[in-house]
Each structure stands twice: as structure tokens, then as C-alpha cells.
Design brief:
The chain is an alpha+beta fold and 528 residues long. Helices cover 33% and strands 22% of the residues. Bound molecules: flavin-adenine dinucleotide (FAD). Flavin-adenine dinucleotide binds next to helix 1, strand 11 and strand 20.
Length: 528
């Protein structure tokens, strides 16, 4: 078994874990992050894409609202390339009563969330597809955030500060010497070997799996309740601004413009297992109906993908154990020294992607206190590598760069037309993520995430990976099939209307021209 020695092990490579590893590394400690899949393999890849202004929580959770408002400004500064400054509107539609709107400005001011009322006609000029009968509208500082871009930016920063990031490494055991954590054992899912990481401290950032990870150190009963929510992407950017219903938080109350598409969400239902989250047809219909309330005609557009994620909510004794909609959204840090008598381990859950940096700052401050080694947090001061001096992302950003950079024509060949992913971008991403796994490439480049969902680009990208010598023909075939299978998971729940035609076209390309179902592939199915 390979052994690594470090000061701190961070478990979980979602936004929280990556924020924590960056913070620990920037304070000068040795640190290793361990993630069982790719970075953003869990909830942080299955979220709504909203950079919260805080407006959504002014009534239900004012403390979280204030945190969101403060972090919103910091993230725009340190992650400009991951954030589109769309702005947001809270709208009282023709079917909503005005009680909530009457309180909106006072509640926003109390939570220090900047907000401003505009007239319905101003809102309609800004977003002409909005319900023409809307009664009230409030501007807030919402944005759209690309979770992968943000998390990879933070990971690059952590690595630049000396951190080690081990993806595709699953933690299987946490070892103790008496009452103190001393090592983490993980399994290298690709290489097949076990790795022992000796450390002084473990920070459990396992999101909805944090309870299971705590169990590995004999810390029982850490109740992280997975609050499952579905989201549906539509084939157009039906809004350029984030739209929120001006009502108490409810299902399907937010529409986020995201790259060339827009996303309606979400639901909130307690799940039993974060690895097994169903998407029910009635939930998809519920989302389409909710979109219709804000944007008449919404249902006529094409739903292109549905997905589901699980909020890592810490059990809240104020509400029923199944009522995840009303559980607190704030972060919770669990000190296992006082709770379980296990020193050298803290767990964190709750919070939001928008507050990932603050969550990291809080847990690392506590770790420093417990180690008796106070070092200041500097994560708000440094822009992540690759984003220095760059403006906030705009929808025209990729088009501009394709049109204005003087590179060889072959470099600028478009591989994914929907998301404007060029040959050069694919090559650069493949240089950064070894193994030619197309879903890893997708998460970083957005390959196959637009309206055709990989219909045209998936086989082109597989060809590029093979041509570079990253993978042999058998693995190329296996990886293409895996990529298509993963895309289909999100297509089945919304196969209806116009999307059936698109799916039939994609199927014809893959089966009719390539016979993907029958290409020679490894005897053992490729799964990662
Ligand atoms: C439906 C929905 C919509 C949301 N929308 C928004 C939004 O618009 N804006 C916003 O700010 N927030 C949003 N959130 C909240 C936000 O997505 C989460 O708070 C955040 O992503 C949680 O990140 P995390 O790192 O704590 O958890 P995760 O991202 O789940 O990370 C935990 C990681 O631990 C890994 N792991 C588990 N077990 C092991 C093991 N044994 N070994 C190694 N690794 C392991 C998992 O693979 C996973 O990658 C939304 C959440 C949901 C569910």
C-alpha cells in the first residue's frame, strides 16, 4: 500500500471540499483532497446554477441571505470567468398575491440584501417574455455561476499553493490512534491500489454523504438529510436575467439563464439515498407548469435535459424529519471532539455553493484553533489562476474569442456547435484531465451540454482523444458508449414533444451511421 504523509486530509471534492483544500493550502499547511469521482461529482454538479443575491432567503433564512449577499460580491471578484452578471428579478406574477411583495424591500434591507423596486413596464422592457400581467418587480444582484468553472478554478489555486488533489479515490476507512484520527485509507478507483494518507486532521466535506463518512471514524448519528431537487434545462435562453417568483420559497420558483440554455427548478423532497435519486414525470410537468407562470408559452419550448441533486441538509429539530423544504439552509460544523470524543476531525454540511468560500473559512478557522496554530484566511483576496484581470463571463464570450484570436484554422474548428467548444479547447482540456474520459472533458468544457446534448460532438471528441493517443480503439468505443448512456439518463425523463424528434435524430446519427450499439468494445463495460 502506498503511503502519503500530510497535515490535513479533506474528504469530498464538491464546492465545499475544494474551497476547504484551497483555504488550508493558502494558510501554508500540507493538504490532500480525496474525491471518489471527478471534482464536482456530487451535488455541486447537480445544482441550479444561481449565484444567490440573498433575495431568495430574506424571509425564510435572513442569516443565510446576508451571507449570500456578502459572498456574491467576493465570488464575482475572485472567480470572474465562472460568473455571468445577469442580475435578478423577483416578480409578482398575475396569479400571485402581493403580500410577500409588500414586505420585500423591508426584509431585504434588514438582511442587507441590495434590492430595488422597478415598475412592471420596466421589467417587461428588460424581459419581454415575462407574464404581461405581472404586478410588481424587484431588482437584485443574482448571477449565473458555472459550478465546474468555479470549483476547478479553486482547485487550480489550491494546487498552486501546494495541495494534492486525488480524484477517483474513494475513502473506505478512517483510522484512529486511541481518541485521535491518524490516517485515511482510500481506494484508487482507476489504478486499483489502496493508499494510506497519514495526517493530523481530517475535514469531512462529504455533502449528503458526510454522515456515512463520519461513521467511518465511529462518529455515529450525524444526520445529513438529502433534500432532493430536480431541474430542467430548456433549449433556449428564455430569459437573460435570473427570474424568481416573489412568493415564499416554493417548487419551481427560479429560472436561471445558463450559457445558451435556461434552467427551471426546483423541487425539495427528502431522499433515502443520495446515490439513488429518481426523477418523476409529474415533477418534470410541475417544473414546466411553474415556468409557464413566469413566462407564458414556456411549455411550448423544448426541454432538453433533467437532473437531480441532493442538498446536504443538517437535520433540523424545528421541522418534521421529512420536511426538507423548511429545513435551515445555513451551514453546520460538527466538532467530533466534543460530540464523539474523537479529536482531529470536523464535519461540515448545509450551506450553498454561493457560500462555499465562507464555509471553508469557518471550518479552517476552527481547525487552526484546535491545532493551536492560528493563521489568517486569505481566500477572499486572491483571484484564482487563469482568471486574473479577466472580466465577468458573458454569453458572447466564446464567440468573441473564436472570432478574435489569431490561431491556426484547425485549432478553431468547432467541435461542439451548441456550446462553441473548439478543437483547441478540447485538446487543452484533455491535456489537463488524463484518461480521455468524455464526461470529465464535458464538465470542464461544456461539451455536449447544449440543445443537441452531444448528438454531433460526442463522436468527434472521442475521435480527437483517440487520435492524440490518449486511448486505444476499444476504450474509445467504451467511453463513447458511457458518455451517451450518461446523457440518456437526463433525457429519458423529458422525452416528449419536440425533444423526441431531437432524440430520434441523435439516435439515427449514433446507430444509423456508427452502429454504436455494436462497435467492438472491451469485454468489461467501461464505467469510469
Ligand atoms: C437541487 C439543488 C439546487 C441547488 N441550487 C443551488 C444554486 O442555484 N445556488 C447555490 O449556491 N447552491 C445551490 N444548491 C446547493 C449547493 O449545490 C450545495 O450546497 C453544494 O453543491 C454542496 O457542495 P458539497 O461540496 O458540500 O457537496 P457535494 O458537491 O455533494 O460534494 C461531496 C463530495 O463527496 C464525495 N464523496 C462522497 N463519499 C465519498 C468517499 N467515500 N470518498 C471520497 N469522496 C466521497 C462525493 O462524490 C461528492 O463529490 C443546490 C442544491 C440542490 C440539491
Amino acid at each position: 500500500m502506498r503511503t502519503i504523509k500530510t497535515d490535513v486530509v479533506v474528504i469530498g471534492g464538491g464546492s465545499t471540499g475544494v474551497g476547504v483544500v484551497r483555504d488550508v493550502a493558502m494558510r501554508g499547511f500540507g493538504v490532500v483532497l480525496v474525491e471518489r469521482g471527478d471534482l464536482c461529482h456530487g451535488t455541486s454538479a447537480r445544482f441550479h446554477g444561481l449565484l444567490h443575491s440573498g433575495g431568495r432567503y430574506i424571509a425564510s433564512d435572513p442569516e443565510s441571505a446576508t451571507e449570500c449577499a456578502e459572498e456574491n460580491l467576493i465570488l464575482k471578484r475572485i472567480h470572474p470567468t465562472a460568473i455571468e452578471d445577469t442580475g435578478g428579478l423577483f416578480v409578482t406574477t398575475s396569479v400571485d398575491d402581493e403580500d410577500y411583495a409588500d414586505q420585500f424591500l423591508a426584509r431585504a434591507a434588514a438582511a442587507k440584501v441590495p434590492a430595488n423596486e422597478i415598475s412592471p413596464s420596466q421589467a417587461l422592457r428588460r424581459e419581454p417574455r415575462l407574464d404581461p400581467g405581472l404586478k410588481r418587480a424587484f431588482e437584485v444582484a443574482d448571477g449565473a455561476v458555472d459550478g465546474w468553472q468555479m470549483v476547478w478554478g479553486a482547485a487550480r489555486s489550491a494546487i498552486a499553493h501546494g495541495a494534492t488533489v486525488l480524484t477517483y479515490h474513494r475513502v473506505t476507512r478512517i483510522l484512529r490512534a486511541d481518541d485521535h484520527v491518524e490516517a485515511v485509507i482510500c481506494h484508487d478507483e482507476r489504478g486499483g491500489e489502496d493508499v494510506r494518507i497519514e495526517c493530523a486532521f481530517v475535514l469531512n466535506c462529504g455533502g449528503p454523504w458526510a454522515g456515512r463518512i463520519a461513521e467511518m471514524a465511529d462518529c455515529h448519528g450525524v444526520e445529513v438529510v438529502p433534500g432532493a431537487g430536480i431541474m430542467v434545462a430548456m433549449n433556449h435562453r428564455l430569459t437573460q436575467t435570473v427570474l424568481n417568483r416573489c412568493v415564499w420559497p416554493a417548487d419551481g420558483d427560479i429560472l436561471v439563464p445558463d450559457h445558451p440554455v435556461c434552467i427551471i427548478g426546483t423541487t425539495d423532497v427528502k431522499a433515502d439515498d443520495p446515490d439513488n435519486l429518481p426523477i418523476l414525470p409529474e415533477q418534470v410537468q410541475q417544473m414546466l407548469d411553474a415556468g409557464e407562470t413566469m413566462i407564458p408559452g414556456f411549455r411550448k419550448f423544448r426541454a432538453i435535459h433533467a437532473w437531480v441533486g441532493a442538498r446536504p441538509l443538517v437535520k433540523d429539530s424545528r421541522v418534521a424529519s421529512t420536511d426538507t423544504r423548511h429545513m435551515a439552509r445555513g451551514m453546520s460544523i460538527i466538532d467530533h471532539t466534543t460530540r464523539d470524543g474523537v479529536a482531529g476531525m470536523l464535519s461540515i454540511a448545509g450551506g450553498k455553493l454561493t457560500t462555499y468560500r465562507l464555509m471553508a473559512e469557518r471550518i479552517v478557522d476552527i481547525m487552526c484553533d484546535q491545532m493551536g496554530d492560528k493563521r489568517p484566511c486569505t481566500t477572499a483576496d486572491e483571484v484564482v489562476p487563469g482568471a486574473e484581470g479577466r472580466p465577468l463571463h458573458t454569453i458572447g464570450h466564446r464567440l468573441y474569442s473564436v472570432e478574435h484570436t489569431q490561431r491556426a484554422p484547425g485549432d478553431e474548428q468547432i467541435v461542439c456547435e451548441c456550446e462553441l467548444v473548439t478543437h483547441k479547447m478540447i485538446e487543452k482540456t484533455m491535456d489537463a484531465v488524463a484518461g480521455g474520459q468524455l464526461d470529465d472533458v464535458r464538465r470542464q468544457s461544456r461539451l455536449g451540454m447544449g440543445p443537441c446534448q452531444g448528438g454531433f460532438c460526442s463522436q468527434r471528441a472521442t475521435g480527437i482523444s483517440h487520435e492524440r493517443g490518449d486511448i486505444d480503439a476499444d476504450r474509445a468505443n467504451g467511453l463513447l458508449r458511457l458518455f451517451l448512456k450518461n446523457r440518456w439518463i437526463g433525457l429519458w425523463p423529458i422525452l416528449n414533444g419536440a425533444q423526441v424528434k431531437q432524440a430520434a435524430l441523435d439516435n439515427w446519427i449514433h446507430e444509423g451511421t456508427l452502429d454504436v450499439e455494436h462497435v467492438p468494445a472491451p469485454a468489461e463495460e467501461v464505467v469510469r
